[in-house]
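Action item from last meeting closed. Structure (331 res):
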């Protein structure tokens, strides 16, 4: 049994106009030392998936179905106290914006010591020693000096290294990183991703990386999930997905990568946008944006078709519609 096993997870949000389903039938596993990327545009459901693992979905959202088994226990059924122990001690989260984690009025050292003492029985001296050890681990320059600095005295890249050091304080088994480099410039993004990769390998950490960027997923993860309108639409080994994507949405994301474009020309984009939760189209939710959509796509939800190590939810991949007939239609 894998350390983390998410089975048929479903999340709903109760709005004034009625309930909407933000996540449907999401299943995956993760073990120590494995790296999984969850990718999709904004509104695809990837952050909802990450937040539900840590039971951080707040009202009006709630987990309405499925299981999140961690070490055999269903996290969605734990008390707030039990969940607090899991968060931090066993699973840590790195948020997109460092200021969501860092307290601007406390020094880095004070925050790290406070975090350690809230979860373990260590003396302030021992907590400071552990904090320094973690700052060294994330290769922050002049780590002793950083302990006595305030967040506003640090660059964006340094703040993100400190967030990673805080996430490592209690030696978790898994780190969930939600768009950890979005707020940083490109060269720093690459450094932080390299650091995360190195730490996962060196510390045998499991990583769930949430991102809109398939390029980042290909750089860091071994397995990938592509999400659209709250569902998984493609899942499998990252290399296979990048080299031979089956689903038209994944193909669109790959074609939109800057490295696929011609210098000086506009980047390829998937036309249209992600539907809002209360207006997810029937059938395949991607059909209004898909170049291959046929009548069946408007009414029937596609099931998964396995191809090599990957599976994709698409009628075209399943052979239920043909590329040929669509090509004829467009000429
Ligand atoms: Fe496109 Fe149809 Fe496949 Fe959906 S099921 S991705 S609309 S071809």
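Sequence:
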């Amino acid at each position: 049994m894998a350390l983390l096993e998410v089975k048929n997870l479903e999340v709903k949000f109760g709005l004034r106009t009625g309930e909407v389903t933000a996540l449907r039938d999401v299943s995956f596993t993760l073990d120590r030392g494995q790296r999984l990327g969850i990718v999709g545009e904004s509104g695809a459901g990837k952050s909802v998936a990450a937040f539900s693992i840590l039971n951080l979905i707040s009202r009006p959202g709630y987990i309405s179905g499925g299981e999140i088994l961690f070490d055999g226990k269903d996290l969605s059924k734990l008390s707030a106290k039990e969940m607090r122990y899991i968060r931090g001690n066993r699973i840590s989260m790195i948020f997109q914006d460092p200021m969501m984690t860092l307290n601007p009025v406390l020094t880095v050292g004070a925050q790290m010591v406070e975090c350690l003492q809230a979860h373990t029985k260590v003396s302030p001296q021992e907590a400071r020693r552990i904090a320094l050890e973690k700052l060294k681990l994330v290769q922050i320059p002049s780590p002793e000096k950083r302990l006595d600095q305030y967040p506003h005295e640090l660059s964006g890249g340094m703040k993100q290294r400190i967030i990673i050091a805080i996430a490592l304080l209690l030696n978790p088994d898994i780190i969930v990183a939600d768009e950890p480099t979005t707020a940083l410039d490109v060269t720093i993004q690459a450094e932080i991703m390299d650091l995360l990769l190195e730490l996962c390998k060196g510390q045998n950490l499991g990583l769930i990386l949430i991102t809109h960027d398939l390029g980042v997923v290909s750089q860091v993860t071994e397995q990938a999930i592509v999400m659209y309108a709250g569902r998984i639409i493609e899942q499998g080994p990252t290399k296979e997905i990048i080299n031979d994507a089956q689903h038209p949405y994944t193909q669109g994301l790959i074609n939109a990568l800057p490295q696929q474009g011609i210098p000086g020309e506009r980047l390829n984009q998937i036309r249209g946008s992600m539907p809002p939760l209360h207006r997810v189209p029937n059938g395949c939710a991607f059909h209004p944006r898909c170049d291959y959509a046929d009548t069946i796509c408007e009414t029937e939800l596609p099931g998964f078709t396995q191809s090599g190590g990957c599976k994709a939810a698409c009628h075209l991949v399943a052979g239920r519609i043909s590329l040929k007939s669509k090509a004829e239609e467009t000429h």
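Note appended to the action item: The two ends are 52 Å apart (CA to CA).
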